[in-house]
Target: MurNAc-LAA domain-containing protein
Amino acid sequence: MINVLTNVRLDTKAGNPCIKDNKSLIGFDFSSVIPEYEIKKEGKNYKIRFHDVLLNMPSGSYAIDDGIINKIFISSNDNNVEVKIDLSTETSYEIESIDGIPAKLNFFVDRTPLKNILKGKKIILNPVYKKTTKSPTNLSSHIPMMDISKKTKELLTLLEADVLISMINYSENISNGDFKGDVIINLTTEISTKNESGFKVYYDKDNEKSKKLAELLNKSIERKSPLDNLGMHPTKYNGTRKDAATVTVIPGIENSRLDDAHLRDIDYKSKIALAIFNGILTYLQ
Model:
């Protein structure tokens, strides 16, 4: 019987159960048995070669972008399948084999080296409270913003960052709290008069750290969000500290029916949380 690689499982959501154990998973499903394979380390990356197996999926590049795994490259040649795993930093791996139909080979990547970047960093996540809403389904914006904040906090605290969720307004968040953050991210929605749909990021026009963080967040959200990128926009934060990077993330337009549906969606909120995590991680690197 011909053995076939039928599926590669790539779970890139913040709710991935493996992430709670500080692991990232790449899963390989085979039609009959797990073939013979070899793993080689190339710099910080890994290459897996499966022998005597056909590929029943398109060759090419698959983005993962979960903080530790950037992407994987899959190719097939002479009944061999080669998988190259592109990592953001040097780390170790574990293998789990599960017999059955399909037979599963799970490749777990250790996320704990990311602690070298995040440990002890102070981060404030501020899901901005609004008393009223223009949502077409009467969704109070601070509810999905709190969900995103909690998912982001979990990702960060697993790697020993010091994270505070604070639902107060911008100026109070910065000037009145004892928790002095390296990064301060407000999360809220915005009402549009232009029938817009999409996400955007605001930054402090007088703070280069804020602008840099906004650039990284804008790029990381663009890689995860199906909504349009409405760009980066300068603003002014009263009373903010110049030694901290303060930004405001708008994951969706409040009065857009499309965006409202996404802000109710668990999968979308999980993707935005992972994108914010990625942006913070890259900034702190």
Observations:
- The first strand starts at residue 4 and ends at 10.
- DSSP finds six helices and 16 strands in the chain.
- The chain has two domains: 4-110, 115-284.
- The first helix runs from residue 115 to 118.
